[in-house]
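USER:
Make up one protein:

ASSISTANT:
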Amino acid sequence: MKPAEVRKLSNDDLKSEATRLRRELFTLRCQSTTEKIADNSRIGKARKDLARVLTERNARNTEKKN
């Protein structure tokens, strides 16, 4: 997910996307310990996508307060 795509999302979509990415990251971590993952880079991609979503959400919250 690119930063421009994240900026287009609504606040509700950001919240649901963060939840989805957290679940995906948890699942990937569980799979990495119990079984093989076909693509190990998916963990890093999920972490970066989650960081982008949370950064945008925090930026919007900061704008509201000011």
